Amino acid sequence: MTIPPPPLPPATAVEPAPAPRRPSWWRRNAVALVALAVLAPVTAVAVGWQEWYQYFGFGARAVTAITVDEDASADLAGAEWGPVRGGEIDDVSGLDVPDGTRLIAVAVPVDASTAGIGCETPKLVERATGREWRPVRLEIGLLSDPDEPETCLSAEAGEYELVVPFVVPDDAEGPFWVDVRPYDAGGSFLRFAFEL
Fold it and tell me: For position 58, what pLDDT does the model report?
């Protein structure tokens, strides 16, 4: 005789265990969000400071003008500069000078006898309005000439002249300043008085 198995309790519906909840997007990315919240402003401040310092930092921009009278010269950064001479060029045939403008050429003698000196290209500033003009040698069709440099010959010591052409509108009457900034002058630059 066989013994029957014991009766089983009646079957009840068993609910499956809920699947584990996946963490929210915010929790999954919490570390990255904290890093972003900290590093984004720090990066913006660091880049802003670097740009500011390159433009306004000590010696980055020339802010102190050394004014030189029209027929005078000045010593700065180990060289003697001036006196400035120049005037309006009447014969502009063969040059690409726009209508309603004039061509003004300025010569700045440089005596860097002891050592070569570097400088930015001079600029012409109208005293009454503050309008500025940069050299336009290639733009008007004048080829570069080693005997008439527009910037200082930093590799060479000696005497030479910066010869710089400017195209100005007809209404620019002057008087003008010719600003020259030697690289080794710290925050200073030369401001030559110049009239046509």
Answer: 62
Closest CA to 117 of 149, 157, 147, 150: 157
Which amino acid is residue 89, in one-letter code?
Answer: I
- CA–CA distances in Å: residue 195 to residues 72, 150, 180, 192: 13, 20, 16, 10
Tens-digit pLDDT profile for residues 157-174 = 788 889 999 999 999 987
* Residue 99: CA count within 13 A, CB half-sphere: 0
68: helix, coil or strand? Answer: strand
Separation of alpha carbons 169 and 175, rounded Å: 14
What is the token pair recorded at 168? 């100005």
Closest CA to 89 of 73, 77, 106, 72: 106
